[in-house]
Amino acid sequence: MATTSSFNNIYAGGKIMLKAGFTGLLTLLLLIPAWFVMQLVQERQARQRAVTQSLTSRWATAQTVSGPYIVVPYQSNFNTQQYLMLLPQNLQVQASLSPEKKSESIYQVLLYRSHISMQGNFNFKLPASVNPAVVHWEQARLYLGISDLKGMEETPHITCKDSLVNLQADLPVKRSDSTGFSGPVTLDATQVGQQVSFAVEFALKGSGSLHVTPLAANSKLIMHSTWSRPGFDGNTLPVSSTVNNKGFNATWVFNEANMPFGTALTDVLPDKENISVGVSMIQQADEDQYAKTLRCIKYALLVIGLTFALFLLIELLQHKPFHPVQYLLVGFALVVFYTLLLSFSEYIDFDAAYLVAAMATIALISLYAQGHFKKWRTAAVFAGALSLLYGFLFVIIRLQDTALLAGSIGLFVILSVIMYFSRKISWYPNPVGLNPDQSLSETL
Fold first, then answer.
1. What transmembrane ranges does the database entry give (predicted)?
2. For residue 428, what pLDDT is reported?
């Protein structure tokens, strides 16, 4: 008899291990449909990018403002025409950005309108290699670089020496990678070494970001907006910045000590990529529903595995086996959660979409468990456990820097709960899988 009882215990324990192994394998297999859902999310994300690019290309793309600067032709020692680039001695720029949202299909695209004003002065100094006698001051032109002219709502208003500059759209000399405006200015050799003041004012549309290239010996850039989520770009951070729910203010300051060029250059301007600074209009993390959904799917292994572990635990406590096909159906329900989340988040707020998808999934699985175990109390246990699991997942995807810490603590708590409720299970049952004093199943 003892041998038979021992054999039965080993056989029953082997069945438990076999069921546990099956649920583990099924968890891994369900990552395949989860991967297809991830591909669907990325496809929708690519569609959003295409719509955004289409709208911004018709409105205006990211803008970079360069200048102003004056270009004067001169004759070189080899009797060829070259160009002298005269940059301001002092420059102050103020830019005000007003965010706008435009709808295209089911997507919203973040755009902006800006008002930019510039003030400063030139202090004309010729390089030692340039003979003042061969400089054609009568052909001097003032240039203002604008990266995307579709964003110009009006021709810039520019005054130099208190005279209005008659501008026209023109490619700046030796700056074929940029577009902008230019106009003639009245200069002569007597103004070498003297200060010439200027003022610029214009409205500019754009999307994504606004950068300014401070082509001056000393410059100060002030940007402000009602947008509360700026990203500060460029090789130099603002010397001061304030960001709150009402918007942001940022100030950059440059001087002759940290600018790698002088105010008089021959032929080539400094590379704007190395000195441009500005802001990017960063979308709120909650608004990027595709990134949030992708983060959710990355936790599919955890959600499916813990849900199956819960079913296996209650199956042992209730002595009512759950068929492999039933595990498969529950697994599919867990995967469908992500398609529901993806679909709803394209039309409503991500938080609301998550709540709807989670409630639908929890209700489906809990009612299915009630139909199998025939106890509403057991269904309530499933509903409560899944609610905590999806709530935990929601907290994790909302966090950024502390996500790892919160996730580690959460997993430790979950493991502790599983170990606590499984501590009285006899993995070699006698005879039905529980110790004679096991009473926990009566409450489930």
1. 20-41, 299-319, 325-345, 352-370, 376-396, 403-421
2. 60
The residue ranking higher by pLDDT, 287 or 94, is 94
Tell me the pLDDT tens digit for each residue of 363-382. Answer: 999 999 888 888 888 889 88
* 2 lies in some domain: no
C-alpha to C-alpha distances, 271 to 108, 178, 280, 328, nearest whole angstrom? 34, 11, 20, 60
**Domain end position, chosen among 239, 264, 283:** 283
CA nearest 104: which of 153, 59, 43? 59
283, 305, 333 - which closes a domain: 283
- Tokens 């979308």 locate to 283
Helix (H) or strand (E) holding 195: strand 195-207
- List the domain range (segments joined by +) for residue 112: 61-283
pLDDT classification of 332: cutoffs 50, 70, 90: very high
Q: Identify whether 324 is preceded by a cis peptide bond (ω within 30 of 0).
A: no
* pLDDT level of residue 209 (50, 70, 90 thresholds): very high
| Amino acid (1-letter code) at residue 150 | K
Q: What total number of domains does the chain contain? A: 2
3-state helix, strand, coil in the chain (%, to 5): 45, 30, 25
| Torsion sign (Cα): 371, 376, 380, 382 | negative
Evaluate whether residue 248 is within a structural domain. yes
Q: How far apart are CA 7 and CA 16, in angstroms?
A: 14
User: What's the CA gap between 236 and 216, in Å, rounded?
Assistant: 15
380-384-385 Cα angle (round to 5) = 115
The answer to which of 182-196, 214-228, 254-268 has the lowest mean pLDDT is: 254-268
Sheet holding 247-254, edge to edge: 163-164, 157-160, 195-207, 107-123, 90-104, 218-225, 247-254, 240-244
DSSP letter at 271 equals: P
Same domain, 383 and 303: yes
- The length of the chain in residues reads 444
Same-domain pairing of 70 and 178: yes
Q: With pLDDT > 70 as the criterion, what percentage of the chain qualifies?
A: 87
Contact between 214 and 254 (Cβ < 8 Å): yes
